[in-house]
Amino acid sequence: MAIRVCVAGVSGWTGSEITRAILASAEFELVGAVARRHAGRDVGEVLGLPATGVVVSGTLGDGVRR
Question: Which strands make up the sheet holding 56-57, listed edge to edge?
């Protein structure tokens, strides 16, 4: 069973690299992402990757409720 992760600051320098590693890993599952400027967009679109099905939230509270 994968560890479920929500990344705050997904579009930032560190957050984007962490998110890429999570997406590439079989041990983790990206279930939430937070970035005010990119709210409503797919994480893959924000990072220049294929769509992931995870939509970026504008606040941490919205990101972890999913």
Answer: 3-8, 28-34, 56-57
> What would the two tokens of residue 50 be?
């294929």
Question: For residue 12, is pLDDT > 80?
Answer: yes
How much of the chain is in helix, strand and coil states, percent to nearest 5? 40, 25, 35
pTM higher than the cut 0.70 = yes
Q: Tokens 């590693």, residue?
A: 21
- Classify 32 as helix, strand or coil: strand
What are the CA-CA distances from residue 51 to residues 2, 5, 61 (Å)? 20, 17, 23
